[in-house]
Amino acid sequence: MRITRFISPLLKIAFSAAMFLSLLILPVAAQTAVGYVQEIRGDWYLVGNSSQTLRQGQKLFAAGVVKRQSSSPDDRLIIANLRGEITGESRRCDEQNCSQSIRLPNGNPPQSYVGEAYRAVMNLIWGSPGRYSIHRSRGEELPNGIVKFEKGKIDFGSILKTTGKYHLRWRAVAASDKTETGDWLETTTTEVGEKQPAIAAAEKLKPGLYEVNLLRKRGANLEATPDYAWIFISAAADYEKNSRAFREAVETTEKWDGKVKSETVNIFLQAALDNLARQNARTNK
Fold this sequence. Notes:
Elements: H1 2-30, E1 33-41, E2 44-46, E3 59-61, E4 65-68, E5 76-80, E6 91-92, E7 102-103, H2 113-127, E8 145-150, E9 153-155, E10 164-172, E11 186-192, E12 199-201, E13 208-218, E14 221-235, H3 239-256, H4 262-283
Parallel strand pairs: 8-14
Antiparallel strand pairs: 1-3, 1-5, 2-4, 4-7, 5-6, 8-9, 9-12, 10-11, 10-13, 13-14
């Protein structure tokens, strides 16, 4: 009888301690990130928060449940894991049944450097909705990319591949989506030939991130085309490092292989260039 009275308080203490630990552990588990909203169309929400719909770049947490409020056959929710890989939880309502809830996984994939860079880019997209969406059509001749700047000249060899003469006008990308875009600073001309390096002098430009517009010759004048891109001018000393980092971003989008729209790829690559520009600005202060 005395033993029973002695054990009973110990069991109560052990039970209370277990409950206390569970209260500490559960919130941590519930906040384990497992992916991001890579692309979205329509109204989707997390169960328990139906008043706020999901949006592109949003972080998703373990064991969450997602439902759809809208009903268009064009609705879609493309989810990527922490390494930028499209997951089986994604839904395309023109091909799949979207009436069922989406249950997010309980665990997360192994961490990696590529994953760290991917998450930094997605956080920029989330933090600045609309910043990376240029509301004008963008052609294929002028891709988003990185060029090398050395001794007052720009080497376009990494982005201009088709032979011909190119006229490009430049303006610095605004520091944030709340800052107005400045004026066009300069127009550069370069010619790509089989044995001719695509190099142009740039008097008013310096390393940094720019919006670039391809111009066409019409008579004696140059006219703007719908072909716009973001180009990061990298100092020569940092070019190889920056080029490798951007190539990793491009390889991430190549894994999507038609699972997202071209505008989603465009937004991601612009944000990747923005991330590189910010890193370089901090490093080179």
